[in-house]
UniProtKB/TrEMBL annotation:
The keyword Protease is assigned to this record: yes
Taxonomic lineage of the native organism: Bacteria, Bacillati, Actinomycetota, Actinomycetes, Bifidobacteriales
Species for this entry: Bifidobacterium apousia
Official protein name in the record: N(4)-(Beta-N-acetylglucosaminyl)-L-asparaginase
Residues carrying the site annotation Cleavage: 164-165
Gene Ontology cellular-component terms listed: cytoplasm
A single GO molecular function term of this UniProt record: peptidase activity
Active-site residues, as the UniProt record annotates them: 165 (nucleophile)
Record bears the keyword Lyase: no
Length: 331
């Protein structure tokens, strides 16, 4: 089985593009964009971007230095999907692995046993030669101890403010697309808890003939609507990425409020085969975009209250406060 280098879609342009969730993806999208500019593959771009986030101990919701579950153990989820072949691989509850996204991508090359969980996923990574590491830094343990004193029930766990799942979709100059996700999950989550991130159709989905989508937020609510698949299907019916995101997120937000009585944080990103992107969210949400011939940007999205999304560049003051908060003393 090949990666995204196989060309199955017509592509009459050399455009490449990427979109990723949260400000924390910026360094990764800078790195992955250089590969796309040089003619690299979408799958490589997705993996490179997410690996950059996974290895950064400043980001408390993904990879090294992230927060563990209620028992102080780090359980991570990740997924990778090739938009040409539709192959996907995923891990859930994996432990002691520096780059879960790379494990997920390797699993995507298998026809069976491509989604592994818990001890099976960890064992597979270990015997396959992936880098193993104690993922709990001293700062992460201190932060966990502070949270443990405040978090008394599983229901009090919630997504991170300013961080959550890193999700990305990339389009390369050959017309191939790929998508990926990685997360350590909710603050103080119940051991064994899995959200939407490794679930195809919920946390991510990509089809090179149409486009892709990825999610971040409260997985228990996102998976109720299979929102990534829904957005790709809407793009396939002729909607732009922005129209598809707005339709999927705000209609589903209304549905859950009416039927379930409440709804958690939901933010979605999308990219189509022409390199056009869209975003919708029911909270304040930052994201990063890159496209051939354009400057890499960090943008802020908010719901406009009218069934649409207000998008604007982040301010210099916001960025300064963000950088300060990463190193601020714990309390």
């Amino acid at each position: 089985m090949s990666d995204s280098s196989s060309q199955i879609v017509s592509h009459d342009q050399s455009t490449w593009a990427s979109i990723a969730t949260w400000r924390m993806a910026y360094e990764g999208i800078v790195k992955s964009s250089s590969g796309l500019e040089e003619g690299g593959q979408a799958g490589d771009a997705v993996e490179a971007l997410i690996r950059e986030v996974e290895a950064n101990p400043d980001y408390t919701s993904v990879g090294y230095g992230a927060l563990p579950n209620r028992e102080g153990e780090m359980e991570m989820d990740a997924a990778f999907m090739d938009g040409n072949s539709m192959a996907m691989g995923a891990v859930a509850g994996i432990q002691h692995v520096l780059h879960p996204i790379s494990v997920a991508r390797q699993l995507s090359r298998r026809h069976t046993s491509s989604f592994l969980v818990g001890q099976g996923a960890t064992r597979y990574a270990q015997v396959s030669g992936f880098e193993m590491r104690n993922m709990l830094t001293d700062r992460a343990r201190e932060r966990w101890e502070l949270e443990a004193a405040k978090t008394t029930t599983p229901e009090s766990a919630g997504p991170y403010r300013g961080h959550d799942t890193v999700g990305t979709i990339s389009l390369d100059a050959h017309g191939s697309m790929a998508a990926g996700t990685s997360t350590s999950g909710l603050f103080m989550k119940e051991p064994g808890r899995v959200g939407d991130s490794p679930l195809p159709g919920s946390g991510f989905y990509v089809d090179s003939a149409i486009g892709g989508a990825a999610a971040t937020g409260l997985g228990e609510d996102i998976m109720k609507g299979c929102l990534s698949y829904r957005i790709v299907a809407l793009m396939g019916s002729g909607l732009s990425p922005q129209e598809a995101c707005d339709s999927a997120v705000y209609e589903f937000d209304d549905l859950l409020r009416n039927r379930y009585g409440k709804v958690g944080e939901i933010s979605m990103i999308a990219l189509n085969k022409r390199g056009e992107w869209g975003v919708a969210t029911n909270v304040e949400f930052t994201f990063c975009t890159a496209r051939k011939g354009e400057q890499i940007r960090i943008l802020m999205a908010n719901p406009d209250g009218k069934g649409g999304t207000r998008i604007e560049p982040v301010t210099k003051e916001w960025l300064q406060e963000y950088e300060r908060s990463l190193k601020a003393p714990l309390k």
